Amino acid sequence: MKTELKEKYGLITAIAMVVGIVIGSGVFFKAEKVLNATGGNLPLGILAWVIGGLIMIACAYTFAVMATRYQYVNGIVDYAEATMGSTYGYYVGWFMALIYYPTLTSVLAWVSARYTCVLFGFDIVGGPCMTMACFFLIASYALNTLSPVLSGKFQVSTTVIKLIPLFLMAVIGTIVGLKTGMTAQNFTNVVTEVNQSHALFTAVVATAFAYEGWIVATSINAELKDSKKNLPIALVCGTFIIMAVYILYYVGLAGAVTNKVMMAGGEAGAKLAFETLFTNVGGTLIFVFVIISCLGTLNGLMLGCSRGIYSIASRNEGPHPEVFGQVDKVTNMPTNSSVLGVLLCAGWLLYFYGANLADPKWFGFFCFDSSELPIVSIYALYVPIFLMMIKKETDLSAFKRFLMPILAIIGCVFMIVAACFSHGIAVVAYLIVFAIIMLIGAVLNKKK
């Protein structure tokens, strides 16, 4: 007998879930890069956060409309399959399992380790940092695989904790900065002159990492009261709140330390900003919250990694679906899928170090930023889905059928163009690797 999901969430809960899913480590990790990309030009950096946020909002609204059309469809793979067919859905799922989840999970393990090293004064590039990154990766895997219930409780706890440093820096940093004149100084002084159009492209692509995750929120549509009305509202309101929080945090940092110090210090600059506002003890404690936030995001991504190849196998597709589709009777976890997931994370972590941190770089021409380009790929994969929605959903209003999907497509194309300007020839290297992995997926697909 099939168990139906009950409509149990109200609008406020749905908005809170959207905010909780998206807000994570990205704003801590990328705020410094946005500042460096724009040469310390604070208004230009804020514009980048606004553009990235508006692209997210347009895409989120369009998917929200789609979710109400396919009431029990969950996740990007199912949306791809519903609009473009099972073959396209398979390749999107293969991309998510082999590239998207493991690349971002490996980067989050490194980010968590890097902030921890800053806290304890360890080397943030070499052996100690990478050793800690491996430890966090394995610990997250163990938590998700051996105790899914404990993993879920940890996720809920970190959702609350990660809002604390953002809120405190946004409010206190802005107030103090306005009082001391630090904010005005940072807004009116540029550290380094840069090509503004190129800098804006680079900064917008950096914000994509911080804004990623909203697509997961569409999966609650079957459990949301009056979902046709409330899901679009929840996604739009939630994404607006996220954009506002990120911008206020960014401005709050400018009220604590100079742009030059923040650009030079990176993660240490963020720690200094917290210590400047809240004394050494208070700043250190809040910085611990930042690390916990990063670990919470890592835990959520590892959840996706552990189910990556399982989501394909459950459709009787991909390599050995009879193996990767198995679910452990005790833990109710897809054990074989999760083992492959953590191995892929380890491989991508090794690649991230060799391509971005090692000196000299290990992979020559094939070095690219695995924290950003996979996210841009997602925006590229959205475009056919939006186009097919415009073609198929003939009974929607012009606003829902044409205006918002077209704005979302424009946003996706902007992100793709921005990535080309930002990463240059590295985009070609990434596309070659992407094509090879997709080809392997085609060869190994054993759909029956």
From TrEMBL:
GO molecular function terms noted in the UniProt entry: L-amino acid transmembrane transporter activity
Recorded topology in the membrane: Multi-pass membrane protein
GO cellular component: membrane
Pfam families registered for this protein in UniProt: AA_permease_2
Keywords, comma-separated and alphabetical: Membrane, Transmembrane, Transmembrane helix
Transmembrane segments: 9-29, 44-67, 88-112, 118-139, 160-178, 198-221, 233-257, 277-298, 335-353, 373-390, 402-419, 425-444
InterPro entries, per database record: AA/rel_permease1, AminoAcid_Transporter
Subcellular location per the Swiss-Prot or TrEMBL entry: Membrane
Keyword check for Secreted: no
Keyword Transcription assigned: no
Protein name: APC family permease
Native source organism of the sequence: Aminipila luticellarii
Phylogenetic placement of the source organism: Bacteria, Bacillati, Bacillota, Clostridia, Peptostreptococcales
